Amino acid sequence: MFEDRPDRDAEVVLVGRSNVGKSTLMREVTGHKVPTGQKPGVTRKPNHYDWAPESFVLTDLPGFGFMSGVPEDVRERIKTDVVRYVEEHADQILVGVLVVDGKAAVDIIDRHSGGEEIPHDVEMFHFLEEVGIPPVVAVNKMDKVDDRDERLDALCDRLGLYPPWQQWRETIAPISAKRGNVEALNEAARHHLHEAGRDDLFKFF
Ligand code: GDP
């Protein structure tokens, strides 16, 4: 599957459904040019941003979930590959950034709840925790959200975090990647890097 990962001992990954703004966020964090607005599903390989000589890599993993024009089996394979990648590198991954669309996430979760399947975002959140990676939910596109506190509290509730959201600032980070407003994510990331004894990596966030 994904074979071109640089050999680094510290990594931060971005995971999320397609179209939530991962490439936009990646560009904001790295200051590099990352192609955005690609046809969903085109990015099926991880994008690695490497800061040699630092032993650190930031990885944007392929978007999963519904993508129009992409068959179900391909979508399943992408998700399986993402899960395997995270499992395989769990020891190096210091923070797992789960990017969600702040306006749509709760509705999407609720639409997919109740059946046999666990909604992708909820599943991914718990999966990161299970493999010992601190999850940070980057709640993106907050510039489009009017009822900010209500939305963030509802999201906490769906993730099994007791509201109000303000008590989860190391886990819930409302941002607007497009507007360059990502300070909440930087703070949450620094919290976990500090916990991991890696204050030297603060310069990336
Ligand atoms: P990806 O598929 O997750 O990599 O998503 P992209 O980065 O390509 O973004 C998908 C769409 O969402 C694009 O039209 C972006 O301009 C838009 N987008 C990304 N971040 C934001 C944001 O913070 N606010 C708003 N309003 N739109 C955003």
Which descriptors apply to this entry?
single chain; 205 residues; alpha/beta; Rossmann fold; 6-stranded mixed β-sheet; 6 helices; globular; binds guanosine-5'-diphosphate
What do these coordinates show?
34% of the residues lie in helices and 17% in strands. By secondary structure, it is an alpha/beta fold. It has one domain: P-loop containing nucleotide triphosphate hydrolases (Rossmann fold, 3-Layer(aba) Sandwich). A 6-stranded mixed beta sheet has the order 2-3-1-4-5-6, with helices on both faces. A hairpin with a 5-residue loop joins strand 2 (47-50) and strand 3. Helix 3 (105-111) packs parallel to helix 5. The chain is globular, with a radius of gyration of 16 Å. The model is unreliable at 37-41 (pLDDT under 50). The site of guanosine-5'-diphosphate (GDP) has 18 residues, from helix 1.
